[in-house]
Amino acid sequence: MDYLKTVVPSQLLSERGSNLVVINPGSANIRVGLAKQDSPFNIPHCIARRTNQFSKLNVQDQLLNSQVTTAQHMEREKAYDVIASLLKIPFLDEEVANNSVPRKMGRVDGYNPQNTRKDGAFTWTDIRLKDLKSSEAPGSSMDRSVINESMVQREGTDSMEPTLTERKFREVICGEEALRISPTEPYCLRRPIRRGHLNISQHYPMHQVLEDLYALWDWILLGKLHIPHQERSLYSAILVVPETFDNREIREILSILLRDLHFSSAVVHQEGLAAVFGNGLSTACVVNIGAQATSVICIEDGVALPNTEKTLPFGGEDISRCLLWTQRHHQTWPQIRTDILTKSIDLLMLNKLKESYCEIKEGELDAVAIVHSYEDAMPAGSHKTRLTALNVPPMGLFYPTLLIPDLYPPPPRSWFHDYEDMLEETWHIEFPRRSDMPDGVYPGINVGLPLWDNYPYFSMKPKKEEKVGLAEAITSSILSTGRIDLQRKLFCSIQLIGGVALTGGLIPAVEERVLHAIPSNEAIDTVEVLQSRTNPTFVSWKGGAILGVLDFGRDAWIHREDWIRNGIHIGSGRKYKDSYFLQAQAMCYINS
Predict the structure, then answer these.
(1) Residue 230: HSE in the Cβ half-sphere, 13 Å Cα cutoff
(2) Distance between CA 170 and CA 147 in Å, rounded?
(3) How confident is the model at residue 516 (pLDDT cuts 50, 70, 90)?
(4) What Å distances lie between residue 549 and 120, 253, 584, 589, CA to CA?
(5) Pick from 121, 182, 130: which is nearest to 157 by CA?
(6) What are the phi and psi torsion angles at 565 (to 5°)?
């Protein structure tokens, strides 16, 4: 402990983080890196596989998508008008020329010094693979690790041009390159995680999802972190999981890490808890606004409070879809075919426009931007246009009927019936007590299981999605703690994480909307969102690195041999304690 108080944090991360791989998977992106790194690789969490089917789908799960119903369309228009009233802009179908009341006018252009994005177009991925003369044996091409290593050779060939023998299709393409494949090419895009859950459905079987996760993560370890297969056993993995994950999902991913990727050991942390440590805090209400899902959870003194957890089925990609709908309704979008559900390069473009121009502020907000059209593997076409109502789409976080997340629904949940409990929910079950067993010891499958001393107990609560806006979810989460002193502290310690947290004007909007959402009978009059000390996009990843480095005892780590031989089950005495409980030495170091 004396060493912890005297060592420089960067030195500690460098010393103990060189063999720790921190993995933070999400629906749209995965953040991966060594714990000693300042920031992770942020890679689109998708993979494209070559197919020989002519009547194929461009996207594996696109049949899950639905059409906007008339009722949903009416609700969306109603939500737009409510937002327009708040922002003091014209209603959806109101003509500005017919309104004599002067309105505040803001303008954002492509040369805004705060705008770090450029109007450059994306290019189509080169799907042909260049092979070296000294290629592997013919039979080895079927091995998935060889396929991945050939992909790594293909990546970054600008600096070295290999000797060519033939040109052929790349069998597997990962990351952003997978999103930039032309729809006319013989590839099918797969996203292993959708809306915060493994993307398992009748169209995307479990074995394919897990195979794609393995191939994608193996490609990252080889090509980004340069960790070959024969050295994997020298590394340990820190898995920072979203609050949306179910027990069985965590177990399947742990099997990939330990059994397939051959890490020597692994530990699981929750995103919300890791985010608190990534910002050097101990108590906060963590609001994680991801690309496809939003979660809220409260942390008190380094302990996550499970009964405060809220999940909302929308995120940044829904804002991008709303941006497209808004421009089309106002007839400011060029006459081009833009389809972000089946043509993923359009999603990249819209995400780029959203990040560059959308913000929350009063008054009309317009921008002159370059919109690109991508058709049939042809070079991108450029269209200069005036985008309008750019402050409306991000307000959909507070009025989710504007976003219509049902258009891109989560995968069906019938797969998740897990009777082999993985996380601390087991601790909340009233186990039968035998008279011959001492207090504090409960019978498991075949052994006694001592409970933690002074551990706070919470009732079991199934993970379900809330049909409310962001402000109501935050308010409900904090008020569910039931203690006025903690509630006041949490309302003044709201932490926004995820890529959407970088949206201009979001912090004051959250403070204002949450304050209005607090019931009048509650003795709370102050709401404050804390400024993030780390980039909100990867603060959970950074917190996972800190937790892994400070965990000297490693009591909750799972070793590869133990996992393959026994797994983790009720009565084994090996639970993921770090999900809700942290050792005192880590807290002492953070707070010192």
Answers:
(1) 0
(2) 9
(3) very high
(4) 40, 22, 14, 11
(5) 130
(6) -80, -45
